[in-house]
Design goal:
With 368 residues, the chain is α/β, with parallel strands linked by helices. It has 15 helices and eleven strands.
């Protein structure tokens, strides 16, 4: 955007902010949105009475510690190859991280897709290959497809540690919490490609909160914020899709059918949000042979989060990273206390990379 466009956008948002007549809190749910907002300094465009909150949209950040501990336990079983996305390696568990487990003898391998994990199983038929299945509805269909392909090809040494999450139940849980006062949502683009924009209808109709599905370019995000603020100024709550080139009302029919075939919806633990009803996936009984929990008789324990880490509050919008005493001091990307500082989509990581570190002064725009 040009300088003139910057000025026009700021002026328009300022006028809408004045019409609001009160402070408002908007949440971007998607971790990719969070990074884009910080990278382009978009918070600086908002009027003083509008606060943009980063939500539970980082897949690594919302993975409960009990799943990290279970993965580390699995990785220490002789004959097991543990496959995972790179962001999971350095997330602290009760007894260290997957990176530490690998350094002390566990066979932990980074893959860039579920298919790469399945290929690892095909290439190592005498070993058990476990894939740590994290992420939202964006990545869950790929996990389902790999499981179905493993069955069709008779790849019996492949299993998954299920930790997939569903976005809308988490948004509802936040709205049920009186401490997380939210006035509207910038809905995630990638997830919405799968589930469709109509999936957010309950948020609008039950909770009377406006929801706008947004793309990822700065102009897309700012346009969506303008729509949200305009709705609030008019005292309206509507569902709008500003990413129609990628998101339909009904979503991706093929992906949704695949999820329905392989998975069933179940209650799921989230990091420091507790167990949220109907917010996760489990394998259907006919695919139970690919469930690592069943195959290795693994049970989830309880979370034991570092007392100095406020990642749980950050992903709920209850605290900003620089309100944590450890931020930028005891907790850095090289020495993270929690996943919000580990993941490339983590809020603390974005604050550290793009903002003022540990000053308590909020985020300074480094470039526009």
């Amino acid at each position: 955007m040009t300088g003139d466009t910057h000025s026009e956008v700021r002026s328009e948002l300022a006028r809408t902010g004045a019409r609001l007549g009160r402070d408002v809190r908007l949440m971007e749910v998607c971790g990719t949105h969070t990074v884009s907002i910080f990278r382009h300094g978009l918070r600086s465009f908002l009027p003083a009475n509008v606060r943009l909150i980063s939500g539970p949209g980082c897949p690594v950040c919302v993975t409960a510690q009990r799943h990290i501990d279970a993965a580390i336990d699995l990785g220490r079983i002789p004959g097991v190859i543990l496959t995972t996305y790179g962001d999971m390696l350095r997330v602290p568990g009760r007894g260290g991280s997957l990176e530490y487990a690998r350094a002390t003898g566990a066979d932990v391998r980074v893959v860039n897709s579920t298919w790469a994990a399945l290929r690892t199983a095909r290439e190592n038929p005498t070993q058990d290959v476990v894939f740590i299945a994290v992420g939202f509805e964006t990545t869950a269909p790929a996990t389902a497809a790999a499981i179905r392909q493993a069955r069709r090809n008779g790849i019996c040494n492949f299993s998954v540690l299920m930790a997939h999450k569903r976005v809308v139940p988490a948004m509802q849980a936040l709205l049920e919490d009186p401490e997380s006062r939210l006035d509207g949502f910038l809905c995630p683009g990638h997830v919405s490609v799968i589930i469709g924009s109509e999936a957010y209808r309950p948020i609008v109709e039950r909770y009377r909160r406006p929801c706008v599905v947004a793309g990822f370019e700065p102009e897309h995000i700012l346009a969506s914020l303008r729509v949200l603020l305009d709705q609030l100024a008019r005292k309206e709550a509507r569902l709008e899709n500003l990413y129609p080139q990628a998101v339909s009302a009904e979503g991706n029919e093929t992906a949704l059918h695949l999820l329905e075939e392989v998975f069933r919806v179940e209650d799921e633990p989230w990091r420091e949000l507790g167990v949220i009803p109907a917010s996760g996936y489990a394998l259907r009984p006919e695919y139970a042979e690919f469930d690592a929990f069943e195959r290795f008789d693994v049970e989830l324990g309880e979370d034991d989060v570092h007392p100095g880490c406020r990642c749980g509050e950050v992903i709920q919008g209850k605290a900003q990273p620089d309100e944590c005493a450890a931020f930028g001091r005891a907790c850095t990307p090289l020495n993270p206390l929690g996943p919000c500082m580990v993941s490339s989509e983590g809020t603390c990581s974005a604050w550290y990379k793009y903002g003022v570190r540990g000053s308590g002064a909020g985020v300074r725009v480094l470039s526009e």
